[in-house]
Amino acid sequence: MYTIKDVALKAGLSQATVSRVINNHPYVSEDKKQAVQRAMEELGYVPNSSARRLRNIKTKKVAVLISRIVNPFFSQLVDAMEQKAAKHGYQLILCNTRINPEKELEYFELLQSKQVDGIILAAAENKWEAIAPFTRYGTVIYCNEYDPDATVTRVRLDQVEGGYIGTKHLLDKGHRKIGYCQGNDSSVSVNRRRGYLKAVTEAGIEPNPEWMFKDIFTIDNGREIFRRIAAMDDRPTAFFTGSDEVAAGMIKEAQLNGWCVPDDLAVVGFDDQPIATLMDPQFTTINQFTSDIGEKAMEVMLEIIEGKRENKAEDILLPLKLIERQST
């Protein structure tokens, strides 16, 4: 976020002159006024007094930022949010960042220009230090994804526990060679990986880097991972995929190559999406009660907007549960 100093540098004037323009001081030339206005417009700078006025305007709209609109997890999450918002007379604006940090920050202009009352970050591509300045314009909270440095409310799950119970389930089934897939370096992916590592190290197993894969999100990614492990001489007997989409792709490709799930390869997904029960075999996964997360996040957002709750550094943790099916 830019400051009055940045405006002064951009306009080629002193900070005192910029301040006089902002405060409508009578003894400033028209040329200098125009120079300051141009600099403010180019930088997107909004004076504190204007920001306060904008913050008091209510639009009855909330923006929700997601990373992949094709991910069924987000469909279920946003649907629950929209239903909760509609019951209270609010509209939801869906923003798809495509895992792009710059695009994510562009969406925050909705808050800065007061087109929405708040933003729910269901995916987060930027560090808190880049997002924090926007909180002067409205309410920002996290849902699912989060930054530990954030000074706002975070509605989320214990993803370390999720990664742990999924991996521990495979260990309890007798597997010692367990592979792992994660998405990017988001808080969700990193913490699930921590849970996986915690479980295998507790079992006295040295994690094999060749069985750990990153930037894995889709069904096609799952197919590719199976082909890669099938080509290994020393390969895992089980996989915690961290995603139902990835699990589905891996199972399908295994079957196409004559493998039997779970005899040749046991698979655990994550999310408990409908695809988990549509596959044959149905696969074991972690249910994170997606609709409950979405509903709770919107409830918290509306309470903050309406002055019924303080937006403070607080973790609201919801439960998750292992659902055992035929794939393990």
Number of strands: 12
Shape descriptor? elongated
Proportion of helical residues: 40-55%
Structural class computed from helices and strand pairing: alpha/beta
The low-pLDDT segments are none
What number of structural domains do the residues give? 3
Q: What is the level-2 CATH architecture name of the largest domain?
A: 3-Layer(aba) Sandwich
Written as H for each helix and E for each strand, in order along the chain, the element string is: HHHHEHEHHEHEEHEHEHEHEHEHEE
Instruction: Work out the helix count.
Output: 14
Instruction: Report the biggest beta sheet as strand number plus sense, adding barrel if it closes.
Output: 6 strands, parallel
Which oligomeric state applies?
single chain
| Amino-to-carboxy terminus distance | 50 Å
* Radius of gyration, CA atoms, in whole angstroms: 24 Å
User: Strand share of the residues?
Assistant: 5-15%
Q: What strand order characterises the main sheet?
A: 2-1-3-4-5-11
CATH superfamily of the largest domain, by name, is Response regulator
Mean pLDDT: 93
The CATH class designation of the largest domain is: Alpha Beta
- Enter the CATH topology name of the largest domain: Rossmann fold
